[in-house]
């Protein structure tokens, strides 16, 4: 399995006027193509910060970051935007949908396709059918259940055929039945050549992933399953 993302000695701090708090301390992580990885740890251990760092939403302050074997300039904000748009997808715990836009419009917001409106809508319809959400595309987020909103968020994440999807506690706001369904949907993306990184505090979810990185006070250790 080839390496998609490699982070070496990643550091991330947050600053206020008087205090600087280091949240990631020389973290090393590797994500293979078509691999499902779990980031685990207690609340406040740095899971979301690491997820956002390797997803280039909030890039590390220091360290080395490689994508497909090539070094990414951590100071080049424009390149981060391009990578996120072209190669990454994101599923947030709070869904992050625009309430005054329909599900279809929320998905269309992220598309980079130049195929035209008809082709884009056809792709949305096809993917929505796979996610069993096609009958709700013209509804607004407040009209949808939690599970339906999460499936719309997944649809939005996969619309551009990303190389990696980053999911932050994707089942945190869902009941157990709906949560299990969302996880099946995410795991199904692996067969499409997509890597999945899931930040979770749920050990059952973590154990179902291929590899697990455990965070403790900003440090990171790979957990090996026997």
Helix content: 25-40%
* Strand elements, count: 10
Q: What is the total number of structural domains?
A: 1
Q: H/E order of the elements? A: EEEHEEHEHHHEHEHEE
- Taking strands numbered 1, 2, ... along the chain, how are they ordered across the largest sheet? 6-7-8-3-9-10
Number of helical segments? 7
Query: What's the average pLDDT?
Result: 89
Any idea what the shape is? globular
CATH-derived architecture: 3-Layer(aba) Sandwich
Q: By helix and strand content, what is the structural category?
A: alpha/beta
Assembly state (oligomeric)? single chain
Spatial gap, N to C terminus: 20 Å
Given as residue ranges, the uncertain stretches (5+ residues, pLDDT < 50) are none
Biggest pleated sheet = 6 strands, mixed
Folded structure, characterized:
This protein has a single domain (3-101, 161-223), classed as 3-Layer(aba) Sandwich (Rossmann fold). The chain is 31% helix and 28% strand. It has helices at residues 47-54, 77-87, 103-108, 117-130, 146-158, 176-188, 203-207, and strands at 3-15, 20-32, 36-40, 62-67, 70-71, 88-91, 164-168, 195-199, 211-216, 219-223. Strands 6-7-8-3-9-10 form a six-stranded mixed sheet. It has a four-stranded antiparallel sheet with strand order 2-1-4-5, covered by helices on one side. Strand 7 (164-168), helix 6 and strand 8 form a beta-alpha-beta unit. Helix 5 (146-158) runs parallel beside helix 6.
């Amino acid at each position: 399995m080839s390496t998609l993302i490699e982070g070496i000695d990643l550091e991330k701090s947050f600053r206020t006027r008087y205090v600087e708090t280091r949240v990631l301390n020389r973290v090393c992580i590797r994500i293979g193509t078509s691999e499902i990885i779990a980031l685990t740890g207690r609340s406040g251990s740095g899971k979301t910060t690491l997820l956002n760092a390797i997803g280039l939403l909030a890039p590390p302050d220091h360290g080395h970051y490689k994508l497909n074997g090539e070094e990414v300039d951590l100071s080049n904000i424009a390149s981060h935007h391009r990578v996120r748009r072209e190669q990454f997808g994101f599923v947030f715990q709070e869904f992050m949908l625009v309430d005054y836009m329909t599900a279809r419009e929320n998905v269309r917001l992220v598309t980079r396709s130049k195929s035209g409106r008809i082709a884009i809508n056809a792709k949305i319809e096809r993917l929505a059918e796979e996610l069993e959400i096609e009958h709700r595309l013209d509804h607004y987020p407040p009209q949808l259940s939690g599970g339906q909103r999460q499936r719309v968020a997944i649809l939005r994440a996969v619309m551009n055929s990303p190389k990696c999807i980053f999911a932050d506690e994707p089942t945190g706001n869902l009941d157990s039945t709906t949560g299990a369904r969302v996880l099946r949907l995410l795991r199904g993306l692996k067969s499409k050549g997509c890597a999945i990184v899931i930040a979770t505090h749920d050990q059952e979810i973590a154990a179902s992933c291929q590899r697990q990185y455990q965070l403790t006070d900003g440090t990171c250790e790979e957990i090996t399953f026997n």
